Amino acid sequence: MKSILSPRRIVTYVAALATLISLLAPTVSAGQISGTINGQGENPHPRDLSSRTRVTLNGGKYTAMITKDGKFIFADVPQGSYLLEVQSPQYVYPTVRVVVTEKDPRAYLVSYGADWSNDNNIVQLPLALTPRAATEYFIAREGFKLQHLFANPMMLMMGFSVVMLFIMPKLMANMDPEAMEEIQGMQESTQMPAFEMPDIAATLAKFSTGNSGAAGSAKKKQ
């Protein structure tokens, strides 16, 4: 005889199978990271923020949009340590390290160059991020500074020449006559010989007279 399972037994088997699958399957707990972004000024309002403002985790692995009231939320974030950054074309916001655990997540301020495991600067959750400064895209032109003149090689050469112009006559006046004659002899020996420039007009005249004489002799021969 065929045995027919009753509906009650079928429900019992299905529940036992679901319980067994849930026990065997790996469980991964997830956390939630939320906060608010404010603007800058005496009366900052989130509506003044640019529409391109984003909040990212680990350089864009997770991205959260900002609501009109400046709130953001990361839901179902796996356990781990994350770097939270605000990408804004208007302001520079602090960087926060968020650690998601089985319990409540924890947040710490991050300074560039500091140890990643530094847990001294604790930040309360949910986050309330305020800009440190406005973003500057242009560098202000520096004004005139006297030290820039001394850093210019041309100015240094000119200054040295002027100083030597006043010092050399005094040195030459106090110099021994024999040493003076020796220096003058060295200058004459090292002086480049003067080359005489040829007379271009005379050269052209000779060239023209030579051509005319050659043409006259050729006509006589004919």
From TrEMBL:
The keyword Transmembrane helix applies. GO terms for cellular component: EMC complex. The chain crosses the membrane at residues 149-168. Pfam families: EMC7_beta-sandw. Residues 1-30 form the signal peptide. The keyword rRNA-binding does not apply. It is found in: Membrane. It is a single-pass membrane protein. Residues 45-157 form the ER membrane protein complex subunit 7 beta-sandwich domain. Keywords: Membrane, Signal, Transmembrane, Transmembrane helix. One of its GO terms (molecular function) is carbohydrate binding. PANTHER family: ER MEMBRANE PROTEIN COMPLEX SUBUNIT 7 (PTHR13605). Belongs to the EMC7 family. This is ER membrane protein complex subunit 7 beta-sandwich domain-containing protein.
